[in-house]
Protein backbone atom coordinates (compact mmCIF):
# COMPACT_ATOMS: atom_id res chain seq x y z
CA UNK A 1 0.00 0.00 0.00
CA UNK A 2 1.27 3.48 -0.80
CA UNK A 3 2.23 5.63 2.17
CA UNK A 4 -0.33 8.15 0.88
CA UNK A 5 -3.25 5.79 0.22
CA UNK A 6 -4.85 6.91 3.48
CA UNK A 7 -5.86 10.24 1.92
CA UNK A 8 -8.61 8.64 -0.16
CA UNK A 9 -10.44 7.80 3.08
CA UNK A 10 -10.39 11.38 4.39
CA UNK A 11 -13.79 12.91 5.05
CA UNK A 12 -16.15 13.90 7.81
CA UNK A 13 -17.22 11.17 10.23
CA UNK A 14 -20.99 11.08 10.83
CA UNK A 15 -22.51 11.23 14.30
CA UNK A 16 -19.56 12.85 16.06
CA UNK A 17 -20.36 14.06 19.58
CA UNK A 18 -16.91 14.12 21.21
CA UNK A 19 -13.37 14.69 19.89
CA UNK A 20 -10.12 14.43 21.82
CA UNK A 21 -6.83 16.03 20.79
CA UNK A 22 -3.61 14.66 22.28
CA UNK A 23 -0.92 17.36 22.55
CA UNK A 24 0.70 17.58 26.04
CA UNK A 25 3.56 19.98 25.37
CA UNK A 26 4.70 23.62 25.63
CA UNK A 27 3.26 27.06 24.89
CA UNK A 28 4.59 27.48 21.35
CA UNK A 29 3.51 23.95 20.45
CA UNK A 30 -0.03 24.74 21.65
CA UNK A 31 -0.11 27.88 19.50
CA UNK A 32 0.97 25.86 16.46
CA UNK A 33 -2.05 23.57 17.01
CA UNK A 34 -4.62 26.39 17.18
CA UNK A 35 -5.48 26.45 13.45
CA UNK A 36 -6.11 22.68 13.50
CA UNK A 37 -8.25 23.01 16.64
CA UNK A 38 -10.30 25.74 14.95
CA UNK A 39 -10.63 23.55 11.85
CA UNK A 40 -11.96 20.61 13.88
CA UNK A 41 -14.45 22.87 15.66
CA UNK A 42 -15.53 24.33 12.32
CA UNK A 43 -16.15 20.84 10.93
CA UNK A 44 -17.96 19.58 14.05
CA UNK A 45 -19.51 22.66 15.70
CA UNK A 46 -21.85 20.64 17.93
CA UNK A 47 -19.19 18.20 19.15
CA UNK A 48 -17.31 18.65 22.43
CA UNK A 49 -13.61 19.21 21.77
CA UNK A 50 -11.50 17.85 24.63
CA UNK A 51 -7.79 18.69 24.90
CA UNK A 52 -5.56 16.03 26.50
CA UNK A 53 -2.71 18.10 27.87
CA UNK A 54 -0.88 19.38 30.91
CA UNK A 55 -1.89 21.28 34.02
CA UNK A 56 -0.92 24.61 32.47
CA UNK A 57 -3.33 23.98 29.56
CA UNK A 58 -6.19 23.51 32.03
CA UNK A 59 -5.36 26.71 33.88
CA UNK A 60 -4.75 28.81 30.77
CA UNK A 61 -7.84 27.63 28.85
CA UNK A 62 -10.30 27.79 31.78
CA UNK A 63 -13.01 30.23 30.70
CA UNK A 64 -11.10 31.28 27.57
CA UNK A 65 -13.25 31.53 24.41
CA UNK A 66 -11.98 29.32 21.63
CA UNK A 67 -12.27 25.89 20.08
CA UNK A 68 -11.38 23.88 23.22
CA UNK A 69 -14.37 23.01 25.40
CA UNK A 70 -12.58 21.04 28.11
CA UNK A 71 -9.06 20.07 29.17
CA UNK A 72 -8.17 16.72 30.73
CA UNK A 73 -4.76 16.68 32.41
CA UNK A 74 -2.71 13.64 31.49
CA UNK A 75 -0.37 11.78 33.82
CA UNK A 76 3.29 11.58 32.74
CA UNK A 77 3.63 8.98 29.98
CA UNK A 78 7.15 8.21 28.68
CA UNK A 79 7.43 9.55 25.15
CA UNK A 80 4.04 11.28 25.39
CA UNK A 81 4.48 14.50 27.31
CA UNK A 82 7.33 13.11 29.40
CA UNK A 83 10.92 12.02 28.62
CA UNK A 84 11.20 8.70 26.82
CA UNK A 85 13.52 7.39 29.53
CA UNK A 86 11.36 8.75 32.36
CA UNK A 87 9.45 6.66 34.87
CA UNK A 88 5.68 6.37 34.92
CA UNK A 89 3.14 5.28 37.50
CA UNK A 90 1.71 2.32 35.60
CA UNK A 91 -1.43 2.15 37.75
CA UNK A 92 -2.08 5.88 37.21
CA UNK A 93 -1.63 5.56 33.45
CA UNK A 94 -3.90 2.49 33.31
CA UNK A 95 -6.55 4.36 35.28
CA UNK A 96 -6.30 7.32 32.91
CA UNK A 97 -6.66 5.06 29.86
CA UNK A 98 -9.73 3.49 31.43
CA UNK A 99 -11.25 6.92 32.06
CA UNK A 100 -10.59 7.94 28.46
CA UNK A 101 -12.20 4.76 27.14
CA UNK A 102 -15.24 5.54 29.30
CA UNK A 103 -15.46 8.97 27.62
CA UNK A 104 -16.33 7.15 24.36
CA UNK A 105 -14.61 9.57 22.04
CA UNK A 106 -15.70 9.46 18.42
CA UNK A 107 -12.35 10.82 17.20
CA UNK A 108 -8.97 10.99 18.91
CA UNK A 109 -6.42 13.11 17.07
CA UNK A 110 -2.77 12.41 17.88
CA UNK A 111 -1.01 15.75 17.48
CA UNK A 112 2.11 14.89 19.45
CA UNK A 113 5.03 14.24 17.13
CA UNK A 114 5.67 11.40 14.70
CA UNK A 115 3.78 8.75 16.65
CA UNK A 116 6.47 6.29 17.68
CA UNK A 117 5.19 6.45 21.26
CA UNK A 118 2.04 8.54 20.90
CA UNK A 119 0.29 6.46 18.22
CA UNK A 120 0.18 3.22 20.27
CA UNK A 121 -0.99 5.24 23.27
CA UNK A 122 -3.67 6.95 21.18
CA UNK A 123 -4.93 3.62 19.84
CA UNK A 124 -5.49 2.45 23.42
CA UNK A 125 -8.04 5.18 24.13
CA UNK A 126 -10.91 3.36 22.46
CA UNK A 127 -12.13 5.95 19.94
CA UNK A 128 -14.28 5.10 16.92
CA UNK A 129 -11.56 6.63 14.75
CA UNK A 130 -7.98 7.68 15.45
CA UNK A 131 -5.98 10.07 13.31
CA UNK A 132 -2.38 11.15 13.62
CA UNK A 133 1.01 11.84 12.11
CA UNK A 134 3.12 8.81 11.27
CA UNK A 135 6.91 8.71 11.03
CA UNK A 136 8.63 5.77 9.35
CA UNK A 137 9.26 4.03 12.67
CA UNK A 138 5.69 4.52 13.96
CA UNK A 139 2.60 2.33 13.91
CA UNK A 140 -0.15 4.00 11.85
CA UNK A 141 -3.43 5.27 13.24
CA UNK A 142 -6.71 4.62 11.37
CA UNK A 143 -6.12 7.67 9.20
CA UNK A 144 -2.73 9.31 9.08
CA UNK A 145 -0.40 11.72 7.34
CA UNK A 146 3.35 11.35 6.99
CA UNK A 147 5.39 13.13 9.66
CA UNK A 148 8.09 15.25 8.03
CA UNK A 149 10.83 17.25 9.73
CA UNK A 150 11.56 20.06 9.42
CA UNK A 151 8.18 21.33 8.34
CA UNK A 152 5.64 24.03 9.14
CA UNK A 153 3.89 22.66 12.24
CA UNK A 154 0.70 24.70 11.77
CA UNK A 155 0.22 23.43 8.23
CA UNK A 156 1.16 19.87 9.18
CA UNK A 157 -1.48 19.80 11.92
CA UNK A 158 -4.04 21.36 9.57
CA UNK A 159 -3.32 18.56 7.10
CA UNK A 160 -4.01 16.10 9.91
CA UNK A 161 -7.33 17.78 10.79
CA UNK A 162 -8.30 17.54 7.11
CA UNK A 163 -8.30 13.74 7.46
CA UNK A 164 -11.69 14.10 9.14
CA UNK A 165 -12.94 17.03 7.08
CA UNK A 166 -11.45 19.85 9.12
CA UNK A 167 -11.03 22.95 6.97
CA UNK A 168 -10.05 26.26 8.54
CA UNK A 169 -11.48 29.63 7.50
CA UNK A 170 -9.10 32.59 7.57
CA UNK A 171 -8.52 33.80 11.14
CA UNK A 172 -7.41 37.33 11.93
CA UNK A 173 -6.84 36.16 15.49
CA UNK A 174 -6.18 32.58 16.55
CA UNK A 175 -6.13 33.09 20.33
CA UNK A 176 -8.71 34.98 22.41
CA UNK A 177 -7.57 37.47 25.05
CA UNK A 178 -9.88 37.69 28.06
CA UNK A 179 -10.89 40.57 30.33
CA UNK A 180 -8.88 38.92 33.12
CA UNK A 181 -5.78 38.90 30.89
CA UNK A 182 -6.20 42.60 30.17
CA UNK A 183 -6.82 43.46 33.83
CA UNK A 184 -3.66 41.64 34.96
CA UNK A 185 -1.54 43.42 32.36
CA UNK A 186 -3.11 46.78 33.26
CA UNK A 187 -2.37 46.29 36.97
CA UNK A 188 1.26 45.42 36.33
CA UNK A 189 1.82 48.31 33.93
CA UNK A 190 0.05 50.71 36.29
CA UNK A 191 2.58 49.70 38.92
CA UNK A 192 5.23 51.14 36.61
CA UNK A 193 3.30 54.39 36.17
CA UNK A 194 1.88 53.52 32.77
CA UNK A 195 -1.73 54.10 31.82
CA UNK A 196 -3.35 53.04 28.59
CA UNK A 197 -4.93 55.65 26.34
CA UNK A 198 -6.73 54.23 23.32
CA UNK A 199 -6.44 56.28 20.16
CA UNK A 200 -9.36 56.88 17.85
CA UNK A 201 -10.15 53.17 17.63
CA UNK A 202 -8.68 52.84 14.16
CA UNK A 203 -6.88 49.62 13.36
CA UNK A 204 -3.35 49.44 12.09
CA UNK A 205 -2.95 48.00 8.59
CA UNK A 206 -3.39 44.25 8.74
CA UNK A 207 -4.66 44.31 12.33
CA UNK A 208 -8.09 43.60 13.77
CA UNK A 209 -7.78 45.68 16.94
CA UNK A 210 -7.25 49.37 17.77
CA UNK A 211 -3.78 50.73 18.34
CA UNK A 212 -3.03 51.94 21.88
CA UNK A 213 -0.59 54.45 23.23
CA UNK A 214 0.93 54.56 26.68
CA UNK A 215 1.68 57.63 28.74
CA UNK A 216 4.40 57.81 31.36
CA UNK A 217 4.04 61.29 32.71
CA UNK A 218 3.94 64.30 30.41
CA UNK A 219 4.92 63.57 26.82
CA UNK A 220 5.67 66.03 24.04
CA UNK A 221 2.51 67.25 22.36
CA UNK A 222 1.42 64.87 19.62
CA UNK A 223 3.92 62.17 20.58
CA UNK A 224 2.42 58.68 20.48
CA UNK A 225 4.47 56.60 22.89
CA UNK A 226 3.95 52.96 22.00
CA UNK A 227 4.65 49.90 24.10
CA UNK A 228 7.26 47.50 22.74
CA UNK A 229 8.02 44.15 24.41
CA UNK A 230 11.45 42.52 24.25
CA UNK A 231 11.64 38.78 24.96
CA UNK A 232 15.34 37.84 25.35
CA UNK A 233 14.92 34.36 26.86
CA UNK A 234 14.12 30.90 25.53
CA UNK A 235 13.97 27.38 26.92
CA UNK A 236 16.75 26.49 24.46
CA UNK A 237 19.96 28.58 24.84
CA UNK A 238 20.86 27.80 21.24
CA UNK A 239 17.92 29.96 20.11
CA UNK A 240 18.95 32.96 22.26
CA UNK A 241 20.23 36.13 20.67
CA UNK A 242 22.83 37.82 22.95
CA UNK A 243 21.56 40.12 25.69
CA UNK A 244 23.66 43.09 24.56
CA UNK A 245 21.96 42.91 21.15
CA UNK A 246 18.53 43.12 22.77
CA UNK A 247 19.75 46.12 24.80
CA UNK A 248 20.85 47.83 21.59
CA UNK A 249 17.44 47.19 20.01
CA UNK A 250 15.73 48.52 23.12
CA UNK A 251 17.71 51.74 22.89
CA UNK A 252 16.94 52.12 19.19
CA UNK A 253 13.21 51.72 19.83
CA UNK A 254 13.21 53.93 22.92
CA UNK A 255 15.03 56.58 20.91
CA UNK A 256 12.19 56.39 18.38
CA UNK A 257 9.62 57.13 21.10
CA UNK A 258 8.67 53.64 22.30
CA UNK A 259 8.13 52.57 25.89
CA UNK A 260 10.26 49.42 26.22
CA UNK A 261 9.32 46.52 28.50
CA UNK A 262 11.60 43.49 28.87
CA UNK A 263 9.72 40.29 29.70
CA UNK A 264 10.83 36.94 31.05
CA UNK A 265 10.08 34.22 33.56
CA UNK A 266 11.31 34.22 37.15
CA UNK A 267 14.21 31.99 36.07
CA UNK A 268 15.08 34.48 33.34
CA UNK A 269 15.25 37.44 35.75
CA UNK A 270 19.08 37.73 35.57
CA UNK A 271 18.89 37.85 31.77
CA UNK A 272 16.14 40.47 31.85
CA UNK A 273 18.15 42.57 34.31
CA UNK A 274 21.19 42.27 32.03
CA UNK A 275 19.21 43.67 29.09
CA UNK A 276 17.71 46.51 31.15
CA UNK A 277 21.08 47.41 32.70
CA UNK A 278 22.71 47.39 29.26
CA UNK A 279 20.34 50.03 27.90
CA UNK A 280 21.05 53.77 27.96
CA UNK A 281 17.32 54.53 28.03
CA UNK A 282 15.05 53.40 30.88
CA UNK A 283 13.10 50.16 30.42
CA UNK A 284 10.55 48.23 32.43
CA UNK A 285 11.66 44.96 34.04
CA UNK A 286 8.75 42.49 33.86
CA UNK A 287 10.62 39.32 34.84
CA UNK A 288 8.20 37.03 36.68
CA UNK A 289 5.58 39.78 36.91
CA UNK A 290 2.89 38.20 34.71
CA UNK A 291 1.17 34.86 34.46
CA UNK A 292 0.52 33.38 31.05
CA UNK A 293 -2.85 35.10 30.79
CA UNK A 294 -1.43 38.45 31.85
CA UNK A 295 1.30 38.01 29.27
CA UNK A 296 -1.42 37.68 26.62
CA UNK A 297 -2.93 40.94 27.88
CA UNK A 298 0.48 42.61 27.62
CA UNK A 299 1.13 41.27 24.13
CA UNK A 300 -2.27 42.48 22.94
CA UNK A 301 -1.47 45.99 24.19
CA UNK A 302 1.97 46.01 22.59
CA UNK A 303 2.60 47.76 19.29
CA UNK A 304 5.49 45.41 18.60
CA UNK A 305 7.31 42.38 20.04
CA UNK A 306 11.00 41.61 19.46
CA UNK A 307 11.78 38.07 20.53
CA UNK A 308 13.76 34.91 20.19
CA UNK A 309 11.92 31.91 18.74
CA UNK A 310 9.99 31.05 21.91
CA UNK A 311 6.44 30.76 23.28
CA UNK A 312 5.67 34.48 23.81
CA UNK A 313 6.61 35.25 20.20
CA UNK A 314 4.11 32.71 18.94
CA UNK A 315 1.45 33.92 21.41
CA UNK A 316 1.90 37.45 20.04
CA UNK A 317 1.46 36.30 16.45
CA UNK A 318 -1.63 34.23 17.39
CA UNK A 319 -3.12 37.31 19.08
CA UNK A 320 -2.37 39.48 16.04
CA UNK A 321 0.53 41.60 17.31
CA UNK A 322 3.33 42.37 14.83
CA UNK A 323 6.71 40.91 15.77
CA UNK A 324 10.35 40.64 14.83
CA UNK A 325 11.63 37.12 15.50
CA UNK A 326 15.23 35.90 15.64
CA UNK A 327 15.30 32.37 14.21
CA UNK A 328 17.61 29.53 13.42
CA UNK A 329 16.63 28.66 9.84
CA UNK A 330 14.99 25.25 10.42
CA UNK A 331 13.00 26.65 13.36
CA UNK A 332 11.52 29.34 11.13
CA UNK A 333 10.23 26.60 8.84
CA UNK A 334 8.63 24.87 11.85
CA UNK A 335 7.10 27.97 13.39
CA UNK A 336 6.16 30.32 10.53
CA UNK A 337 2.78 31.96 11.24
CA UNK A 338 -0.35 31.63 9.14
CA UNK A 339 -0.36 35.42 8.66
CA UNK A 340 3.08 36.14 7.17
CA UNK A 341 2.44 39.90 7.20
CA UNK A 342 2.73 39.97 11.00
CA UNK A 343 6.29 38.62 11.21
CA UNK A 344 9.64 40.03 10.17
CA UNK A 345 12.17 37.23 10.58
CA UNK A 346 15.90 37.68 11.13
CA UNK A 347 17.36 34.29 10.30
CA UNK A 348 20.69 32.66 11.08
CA UNK A 349 21.97 30.20 8.48
CA UNK A 350 24.52 28.62 10.83
CA UNK A 351 24.38 24.84 10.69
CA UNK A 352 27.55 23.88 12.60
CA UNK A 353 27.99 24.18 16.35
CA UNK A 354 30.36 27.06 17.15
CA UNK A 355 32.00 24.86 19.81
CA UNK A 356 32.48 21.43 18.20
CA UNK A 357 31.64 22.06 14.55
CA UNK A 358 28.96 19.34 14.32
CA UNK A 359 26.26 19.91 11.69
CA UNK A 360 23.12 20.16 13.87
CA UNK A 361 20.53 19.71 11.14
CA UNK A 362 20.40 15.91 11.43
CA UNK A 363 21.63 15.44 15.00
CA UNK A 364 22.16 17.92 17.82
CA UNK A 365 25.31 18.09 19.89
CA UNK A 366 25.33 18.66 23.64
CA UNK A 367 26.68 22.23 23.52
CA UNK A 368 24.49 25.19 24.42
CA UNK A 369 26.17 27.93 22.38
CA UNK A 370 23.92 30.29 20.43
CA UNK A 371 23.22 29.40 16.81
CA UNK A 372 21.72 32.84 16.12
CA UNK A 373 24.47 35.16 17.42
CA UNK A 374 25.49 36.00 13.85
CA UNK A 375 22.21 37.88 13.28
CA UNK A 376 23.13 41.57 13.23
CA UNK A 377 21.70 44.40 15.30
CA UNK A 378 21.25 46.44 12.12
CA UNK A 379 19.02 43.79 10.56
CA UNK A 380 16.76 43.44 13.61
CA UNK A 381 16.67 47.20 14.21
CA UNK A 382 15.69 47.79 10.61
CA UNK A 383 12.77 45.41 10.88
CA UNK A 384 11.70 46.73 14.29
CA UNK A 385 11.84 50.43 13.42
CA UNK A 386 10.00 49.79 10.16
CA UNK A 387 7.17 48.06 12.02
CA UNK A 388 7.11 50.71 14.77
CA UNK A 389 6.72 53.47 12.21
UniProtKB/TrEMBL annotation:
Residues in coiled coil: none
Keyword field contains Metal-binding: no
Alphabetized UniProt keyword annotations: Glycosyltransferase, Transferase
Pfam families assigned: Glyco_transf_9 (PF01075)
Gene3D superfamilies, sorted: Glycogen Phosphorylase B
Region (Disordered): 199-224
Record-linked InterPro entries: Glyco_trans_9, LPS_LOS_Heptosyltrfase
Listed SUPFAM superfamilies: UDP-Glycosyltransferase/glycogen phosphorylase
PANTHER family assigned: ADP-HEPTOSE--LPS HEPTOSYLTRANSFERASE 2 (PTHR30160:SF7), TETRAACYLDISACCHARIDE 4'-KINASE-RELATED (PTHR30160)
The protein's name: Glycosyltransferase family 9 protein
Species annotation: Massilia consociata
